[in-house]
From TrEMBL, chains A, B, C, D:
<dbReference type="Pfam" id="PF00106">
    <property type="entry name" value="adh_short"/>
</dbReference>
<protein>
    <recommendedName>
        <fullName>Short-chain dehydrogenase/reductase SDR</fullName>
    </recommendedName>
</protein>
<dbReference type="InterPro" id="IPR002347">
    <property type="entry name" value="SDR_fam"/>
</dbReference>
<dbReference type="InterPro" id="IPR036291">
    <property type="entry name" value="NAD(P)-bd_dom_sf"/>
</dbReference>
Amino acid sequence: MVLQKTAVVVGIGPGAGSSIARRFAHEGYKVALVSRREESLQPVAKEIESLGGQALSVPADTGDAASVRQAFQTIVAKLGAPEVLVYNAGPGMKWPPPGILDLDPAVFSHAFDAGVTGALVWAQQALPAMVEAGRGTILFTGATAGMRGGPKFALLACPKFALRALSQSIAREFQPQGIHVAHIIIDGIIEAPRTKGMVPDRDQSSFMSPDAIAETYWQLHKQDKSAWTQEMDLRPFVEKF
Amino acid sequence: MVLQKTAVVVGIGPGAGSSIARRFAHEGYKVALVSRREESLQPVAKEIESLGGQALSVPADTGDAASVRQAFQTIVAKLGAPEVLVYNAGPGMKWPPPGILDLDPAVFSHAFDAGVTGALVWAQQALPAMVEAGRGTILFTGATAGMRGGPKFALLACPKFALRALSQSIAREFQPQGIHVAHIIIDGIIEAPRTKGMVPDRDQSSFMSPDAIAETYWQLHKQDKSAWTQEMDLRPFVEKF
Amino acid sequence: MVLQKTAVVVGIGPGAGSSIARRFAHEGYKVALVSRREESLQPVAKEIESLGGQALSVPADTGDAASVRQAFQTIVAKLGAPEVLVYNAGPGMKWPPPGILDLDPAVFSHAFDAGVTGALVWAQQALPAMVEAGRGTILFTGATAGMRGGPKFALLACPKFALRALSQSIAREFQPQGIHVAHIIIDGIIEAPRTKGMVPDRDQSSFMSPDAIAETYWQLHKQDKSAWTQEMDLRPFVEKF
Amino acid sequence: MVLQKTAVVVGIGPGAGSSIARRFAHEGYKVALVSRREESLQPVAKEIESLGGQALSVPADTGDAASVRQAFQTIVAKLGAPEVLVYNAGPGMKWPPPGILDLDPAVFSHAFDAGVTGALVWAQQALPAMVEAGRGTILFTGATAGMRGGPKFALLACPKFALRALSQSIAREFQPQGIHVAHIIIDGIIEAPRTKGMVPDRDQSSFMSPDAIAETYWQLHKQDKSAWTQEMDLRPFVEKF
């Protein structure tokens, strides 16, 4: 299977997903936009098309392996085997975050399905053609919570730690085969109407620009294979860390 | 609910579980032995009783919240609310470990249930009485794979990373309430008939003594609250790391 | 050279040094007490002797290799080759800590000599007899600042990061030869008249007991070689981290 | 003092320094080339000038604060206050690397002066004008040895750990003032005649391209302040890690 100039972005919604899709479209990539909610996809697809790009809306439930496999087949049929996979879907966040005693085990378990098993299945779909081609890029969106388990943050931290492990495992198995695998730790709040509402008193200059994040994803994809990044952080200049 | 001199050890089988149970029994603790397989429990319970200790075999499926809750009620009814919880159950390991493309998503998903969600549910059962008493100890058995995602180790690494996150989240929420939470990174192969068979050519002196591991668990429980360990590693002297 | 039941504790003053020395003396070890200031040593030596122990005061400047070598010869001559070396000397702390622009390069450079090169030279003295014996223990006192470089903490963080690197390098070279090397991260303020004065408003229950710290050092020394700890943290239960 | 479009690259020799200098010159930056050995500087300066760029050779001993201060004054006088500082000087490496017992304390101590104190002094020179301008970039070249202290690697690991601490301390103090501070972990061998000779049997495709490294330094400098990287790794695709 020949790789096409196609990028799959899983997780379009508040956050950096749509900016990442636009950034790759701007470079001539056909982009597949994946989200559980179709209503998140249409405006992004329209915007990309209005800029002269090619976008495909693919509603899929990342927590369900069959749904992922079907979505991938659709993508391959319409846009070809992707050269780039961006896994930007989260495990699902609750606000305010629940403490340990208020955490529903079923919700916790599902967070692994959506946040980690989904990432595995997407990678399993994309990897064979990448291995055959000896190239390709897989980028995982991580979070501060993937580095540090804070109080009341188990629901986010546990899947994000696991996603980081998955990223390392895939990198160590497939980088020698020419496939670049990176984990980007987003340490800050991405600018979006929803996030601004969550922390209304926050200094507006402290939000992260989704376009700035997207620029780094693009640069990671462009890195020469003699000097690949496996992990990096991104945070606004004012952020304490 | 008044805490009793009771220790629950989840995960009795090859590994350090039975040694940990014996160590606490030796100090006068009533011990609840938990495993999915009842046949793993009986010999350990008998040995503890033959040494004058009190042991309760509690078969339970740690990957099933209802089973965990029922097991905990049995423990409380027979041995009282535990002062100590040791989560020593693994996510289930396959040998040889599968590469990313051979990893069944259902198996992967279940590894989170058994290796992480189970730990959450056990902690949720044990914590309320500990919080009420303002003391208690929860010890999680981690692994090298919880620190580093190796090639072909995603099935172990992802849940173990997540378990580490859970341990940190519980520690940060409950240590200020007097409950000691620690994560012990086992970086080596524990001596047991099964593990010796897995790596037959390995120098026999390089296996970890389960009793030596158990000693460290006991010392962690005894630490003064002014100087608690949240994380430590354990490895045989010959181990490369 | 035959190892004696001798422990060298470098860094006696405010902090855990004197408690560590007492703990080993209590177990029958002859203890060499090392500090730049002789007046820090006498009260500790007297106390140990009054409890029936044997203590040797050895004033030495840990930042000066010749002084360390001479001190070590004195120790060997009077107490024999030590089985245990505890490097508990700090790089020298200023309060309040200077920002980057106020940090005198000569002070910074000297902090490496006292905090890291001194540790190397002490280890170089103690290791040959340990290697010959195939056993021995070297314990390094680390700090939170050895894991994270905070604003205005470069003077402490840089040497403490380097000390951690030294501990790992020595462990990886000498553990296979039977010598246990551990790094203990002290994440909190140790109870002492001086430290209480530095943070007068702090909740008094949040200080770390030096005796509790010493107990962990002793337990590390006693660990079975099949299950050695290379790194662990210690912090008071109320500490945020 | 007004910042000029000037970049200072400390550490020109085998490695990525000259490529980094060329990359910034290519973007119109005046570049100051700093090395202890003047003979390393001339060919790089000539090449940059032949491509239409402006380069200044500044011989200086980074392990000597007075030499650094004088070099900085020369740079400011001739090229203006720099907007970019790249600290690419190493602590000095010996090959083969000495074990702990063969490590000369004076050499070890000097490695901190050249590898860390020098970095502090360079940052102290560059920061005031950056603070005044509310912008600027400081990039530190780190190494795998800055993350992990290997056997026989103490001479490299200890200063590199400390440099990482310095990078974090400066970032946490100055990023809120608009100055971007990043630490790049080079995990591999950079292509150069000298390094190829050190490991003659190594697969030639496994060397890192210095130009590829330089590209990432440039992209770091260009990052939007709402999404800055503090730390990232770079390694060749074939590298085990």
